[in-house]
Write a structure and sequence with these properties.
The chain is of the alpha/beta class and about 450 residues long. Helix content is about 40%, strand content about 15%.
């Protein structure tokens, strides 16, 4: 098979083939909002279309490309792994590679964690945390937070706190409940029964993003200890340098029982995830020869994912990417916080490392056009910013959730100061125009929203 020839043969027909064989509604959505580009390649923090036009990628594959798209050193590790012809999945036996990545992860993780279980994705890592947590404690209840997101398989979805994801897929699993993010009293009220196996929480909620109040995560950990509940921190999106530390939990010196990771662990090349757990949790589940294979996944760990993971961790360290994310995140906040005073429609700007967001609201004096947009679909103003950022300024960004007037970015951590300038200048120009809600923009938004009916929404973040 000559892959390049096959790609050349279908050049110009990629969207049509995708619509015919995979998802026609997604292609329809892309065309409606003008995101139907023919992408040719990616490099670092940039995407290039078939015409060679460079776009600044602030979406980052929903946070997959922390070390940059097509990182050459991660690619070289994959080539080397293929050339080694390692034994791969022996199944009744081991390959020498997985323990190397497990060791590297545990060296960077809190001291409370002592074992690694590999998975093929973040949602699989969450499923493992829920399943093993129930087995280890002998309890059945799981508590998560409102507005949280932990994946789209049934168990992970049952822990979700957003009806936009759960509404059409019930009944969900029994034994799951949600409490408000940041509310320790509500958490203690449900933990006091001593029937809760796991409390799972994102240190920064991706669908917002929402940042924890001072003392919340430390307090939640203490409550879990008091009532015998396992404390699980979901780092699938926030891990590996995203917030300016290797893990977001490092900001609060947390020592959880369970940590889920995925997304950028392989540099975006190979599906991979992992559940990091305490030895106490592991020993309570894998407690005999009979239970040596109590949980697993056919393709996890696979040697290509492991090789990519080792190279990614080395790249994060060698290039000091968490420190880079912290520095550029501070610069981005410094450059964008003045937008709150400059534009009536800007309610808030917030961020931690290179997880950044801007939130919009109706101007204090009121706006008929704004109210019209909101009646058609909540969050349309944010789309009026995202679309011209893409079509006029060549910047790929995202709306941060269903019915959200928030734009969020998760760029590769290899972003430069010049890229920050590019984004801030484009955002300023776009807001200056969008705040006036010109008729052409309103007509586009209404047309897009109507085309999106029935029952579906414009593109939102995962």
């Amino acid at each position: 098979m000559n892959l390049r020839n096959r790609l050349d043969d279908q050049a110009g027909e990629e969207l049509e083939l995708y619509a015919r064989t995979i998802n026609p509604q997604f292609v329809r959505l892309l065309r409606t909002i003008g995101f139907d580009r023919r992408w040719a390649r990616g490099e670092g923090a940039y995407l290039y279309d078939a015409d060679g036009t460079r776009f600044l990628d602030l979406l980052g594959g929903f946070g997959m490309y922390n070390v940059g798209r097509n990182n050459p050193r991660v690619r070289a590790a994959l080539v080397e792994a293929l050339e080694l012809e390692t034994p791969g999945k022996v199944q009744l036996g081991i390959s020498p590679l997985p323990a190397l990545l497990a060791e590297a992860l545990l060296e960077r993780a809190p001291s409370s964690l002592g074992r690694v279980l590999f998975t093929s994705s973040g949602t699989e890592a969450v499923e493992a945390a829920l399943k093993l947590g129930r087995a280890a404690t002998g309890r059945s209840q799981v508590v998560s937070c409102e507005h949280g997101f932990h994946g789209l398989t049934l168990g992970a979805l049952s822990a979700a706190g957003d009806a936009a994801f759960t509404g059409r897929f019930g009944p969900l699993l029994p034994g799951f409940s949600q409490v408000p993010f940041g509310d320790l009293e509500a958490l203690e009220a449900v933990l006091r029964s001593q029937e809760v196996a796991v409390f799972i929480v994102e240190p920064v909620q991706g669908h917002g993003p929402h940042f924890p109040p001072a003392g919340y995560l430390e307090g939640a950990q203490e409550l879990c200890r008091r009532y015998g509940t396992l404390f699980c921190v979901d780092e699938v999106q926030t891990g590996f340098g995203r917030t300016g530390r290797m893990f977001a939990l490092d900001h609060w010196a947390l020592e959880p029982d369970l940590v889920t990771v995925a997304k950028s662990l392989s540099g975006g090349y190979v599906p991979v995830g992992a559940l990091l757990m305490s030895t106490q949790v592991f020993d309570a589940v894998f407690d005999s020869l009979e239970h040596a294979l109590a949980h697993g996944s056919t393709f996890a760990p696979n040697d290509l994912a492991i090789a990519a993971g080792l190279a990614t961790l080395q790249e994060l360290d060698a290039q000091r990417l968490p420190e880079r994310a912290a520095r550029l995140g501070e610069l981005l906040l410094e450059r964008t916080t003045p937008l709150v005073d400059r534009y009536d429609v800007v309610k808030d700007v917030r961020g931690l490392g290179l997880l950044w967001a801007i939130e919009f609201e109706e101007p204090p004096g009121g706006s008929r056009s704004w109210r019209l947009l909101e009646r058609v679909q909540t969050g349309l103003f944010a789309q009026l910013v995202v679309v011209p950022l893409f079509s006029e300024h060549r910047i790929l960004a995202q709306v941060a959730g269903h019915d959200s007037n928030v734009i969020k970015i998760l760029p590769p951590l290899v972003l430069s100061e010049a890229d920050i300038d590019w984004f801030v200048e484009a955002l300023d120009l776009t807001l200056a125009r969008a705040q006036k809600l010109p008729r052409a923009m309103v007509r586009f938004a209404l047309k897009a929203a109507r085309a999106n009916r029935p029952g579906r929404r414009l593109a939102r973040a995962r």
